[in-house]
Amino acid sequence: MVSPELPPSSVYHDNRFDRLFIWLFSRKMARVVGQTTIQPGYEGFVALSQRIMEGRNAAEQQALVALVLQSLVPGPVLWLIRHLFSPGQLVCELNAWFATQLFEWLVGPCQVREVEVPVTPDQSSGQRRQRSGVHIEKCRYLEASGCVAMCINMCKLPTQRFFTEEFGIPLTMTPNFEDLSCEMVFGQPPPDLTTEAAYQQPCLAQQCRMAPTHPQPCPRVRH
Q1: Which of 38, 89, 134, 211 is in Cβ range 3.0-4.6 Å of 205 for a Cys bridge?
Q2: 168 φ/ψ angles, rounded to the nearest 5 degrees
Q3: Calpha distance 105→44 (Å, rounded)
Q4: Could you give phi then psi for residue 103, rounded to 5 degrees?
């Protein structure tokens, strides 16, 4: 697989709501790594993500992000959601809608889409169509970081695990490293990473300063 050419850079104009969420997430991440000063704006948020990666393997990076996500939602709320709301069509569709409203500051413009999901987790009862997919046009986080490992270790895997295990709502995220888009599907149990194309994805050589000379699967996803 050849590392793709990246599309032209996007320009973002964060409003007060966006800046509030950026500050909140940055503050939580700074606490995790023991950092007392925070660089302002989205650039500071990405810099903190890079700080989390330093000296940590993939599993350790994912564990730290999990702590950040858990700190954002009180434990009793997680318990109530997990035990009172089964991941049926309505719940999955509401999560997709909320994702487009609450996380555009993080991933850029996105829209709800109709998708097919298994009726039961073991996929024994066929598929149903529902509006629980989210299409991210060009992920702001991936574009700003230019890093395959950050996309997978700091976003895809922790977010999938958080929704699937903490909320009890299956989620699969499939990034496209050619155009930097991403597909989120609520109600779709996440597959093992080793079976996905992302596991074989080379570094984005145009942006990643740690990219190897010869294209090969990003080493920081595997270690």
Answers
A1: 211
A2: 75, 20
A3: 14
A4: -120, 15
Q: Is residue 150 part of a domain?
A: yes
Range of the domain at 85: 74-222
153/59 Cα distance (integer angstroms): 8
pLDDT by residue (tens digit) across 96-152?
999 999 999 999 999 999 999 998 766 667 899 999 999 999 999 999 999 999 999
End-to-end CA distance of the chain: 20
Judge whether residue 2 has pLDDT over 70.
no
For 131, list phi and psi in degrees, rounded to 5: -90, 65
Specify the number of domains making up the chain.
1
pTM of the model: 0.88
Question: From residue 136, how far is each of 49, 64, 180, 211 by CA, in Å?
Answer: 20, 24, 9, 25
Is residue 94 included in any domain, yes or no? Answer: yes
Q: Considering the domain boundaries, does residue 44 fall inside one?
A: no
Instruction: Give the chain's mean pLDDT.
Output: 88
pLDDT digits over 148-206, tens only? 999 999 999 999 999 999 999 999 999 999 999 999 999 999 999 999 999 999 888 66
Phi-psi domain of 187 (left: phi exceeds 0; alpha: psi -120 through 50; beta: other): left
pLDDT at residue 124, rounded to an integer: 67
In a domain, 13, yes or no: no
